[in-house]
Structures are given as structure tokens and as C-alpha cells.
Specification:
Structural class of chain A: mainly beta
Number of strands of chain A: 11
Order of helices and strands of chain A: EEEEEEEEEEE
Low-confidence stretches of chain A: none
Radius of gyration of chain A: 13 Å
Structural class of chain B: mainly beta
Strand content of chain A: over 45%
Strand content of chain B: over 45%
Order of helices and strands of chain B: EEEEEEEEEEEE
Shape of chain B: globular
Number of helices of chain A: 0
Helix content of chain A: under 10%
Oligomer: heterodimer
Distance between the termini of chain A: 36 Å
């Protein structure tokens, strides 16, 4: 059981480049989400999804797109990278609305935008 | 809008002493409250949660948290801290009618031997 898998672990981009951060889970979780972690600011929600075909914005969605075509995958796309998007990105998933609700996190992607 | 405040950036305690990490929250509906921990160079792990029921919640690694509705607080506690408890701790909240989970800024705990 792999849990939540994120790729890549590290990435360096130039300003204006685009890329996709991959996230996959094998636990049949309906809920998936993307967070960014910045020093002193905790984890901020970028986008989330409560099921295939359903996505919604979090606290800091600008500059990011998501889609959820399958239950397993929830990729995060940076359309035109900016230095302000330098951060550590975490994908997380959970079973929706159960007594066992808890987020399972991926190991993170450290992104630098130059 | 929901929010979480962790008023202390850092907490320093000696091994064997009680550890408390503070958290206050704001939601419009019923709060679902969580604590997560991030050990150095590792991902985030779930510690415990409060959804309903007993105000004192017990979790992993000997941690517990007390839900106080009147003070809108959910402080994390451990009776006797270990050096291995040194980590970054996050409090999180969501409104029971929503699925957005909001995190606090985090509190760095350092336990000295």
C-alpha cells in the first residue's frame, strides 16, 4: 500500500515556465487536496476535490489549476511559474466525512522558481 | 470564514516536563479539530482529532487535547515530554458543513535533554 505518492520531490523552474506536480493515492479516498507550506505561514490550501470531476478553490488558488478525472489522481498545474510560488507543496487525501477522517500526506515537492 | 491561531511560534521544554501547545479557532458551524505533527525532513502525520463527544481526546505518542467550546480552544498536551517530541506542530479546523481544512502557522517544539 503506497499511500499518497507525489512526484517530483524537487524541481527548479525559471519564471514563466509551466509544470505539473503529480499526486496519486491508492486508498480510494474521495477527498484530495493540495497545500503549500511556507515558513511562518503554515499550510495553506490551494485547491481541493471531493470526488472525480469535482474541484474547488482553497485559500490561495491563483496561478494554479487542478483537475480530477479519476479517484486516484489529482495533479496540480502551475501555468506560468513565478518566484512567489517557491514553496514546499503537499498533496493530502482522506475518506470523506467518516469517524476515521484524517489526512494522509505525500512526502512533498520542494519547488524553486528562479 | 474559518481560521486557526497558534499564538506561540516556539515552545521550549525540558525532557520530562509537561508540554502544552496552544490553539484557538474560529468557525461558523460545528468545529472539526485536528492536530498534525511534522518531524524534521519528514511529511506530516496525524496526531488526534475532535469531532464530537468527550472534550478530552487522546491520540498518538501519548498526546492528548482538550476541546473548550467557550474559549474556542483546542490545546495539545503531553504530561511528560521526550526529546523525540521535538517537531513542528500544526492545529487545523474545518467547519462540519464544509471540507476545507485550514491550518495554523505551526508551533516549533524543542525538548531539551
Amino acid at each position: 500500500n503506497a499511500g499518497v505518492t507525489q512526484t517530483p520531490k524537487f524541481q527548479v523552474l525559471k519564471t514563466g515556465q509551466s509544470m505539473t506536480l503529480q499526486c496519486a493515492q491508492d486508498m480510494n479516498h474521495e477527498y484530495m487536496s493540495w497545500y503549500r507550506q511556507d515558513p511562518g505561514m503554515g499550510l495553506r490550501l490551494i485547491h481541493y476535490s471531493v470526488g472525480a470531476g469535482i474541484t474547488d478553490q482553497g485559500e490561495v488558488p491563483n496561478g494554479y489549476n487542478v483537475s480530477r478525472s479519476t479517484t486516484e489522481d489529482f495533479p496540480l498545474r502551475l501555468l506560468s511559474a513565478a518566484p512567489s510560488q517557491t514553496s514546499v507543496y503537499f498533496c493530502a487525501s482522506t475518506k470523506k466525512g467518516t469517524v476515521n477522517e484524517k489526512l494522509f500526506f505525500g512526502s512533498g515537492t520542494q519547488l524553486s522558481v528562479l | 470564514a474559518q481560521s486557526v491561531a497558534q499564538p506561540e511560534d516556539q515552545v521550549n521544554v525540558a525532557e520530562g516536563n509537561p508540554l502544552t501547545v496552544k490553539c484557538t479557532y474560529s468557525v461558523s458551524g460545528n468545529p472539526y479539530l485536528f492536530w498534525y505533527v511534522q518531524y524534521p525532513n519528514r511529511g506530516l502525520q496525524f496526531l488526534l482529532k475532535y469531532i464530537t463527544g468527550d472534550n478530552l481526546v487522546k491520540g498518538s505518542y501519548g498526546f492528548e487535547a482538550e476541546f473548550n467550546k467557550s474559549q474556542t480552544s483546542f490545546h495539545l498536551k503531553k504530561p511528560s515530554a521526550l526529546v523525540s517530541d521535538s517537531a513542528l506542530y500544526f492545529c487545523a479546523v474545518r467547519d462540519g458543513g464544509d471540507y476545507k481544512l485550514s491550518f495554523g502557522a505551526g508551533t516549533t517544539v524543542t525538548v531539551r535533554a
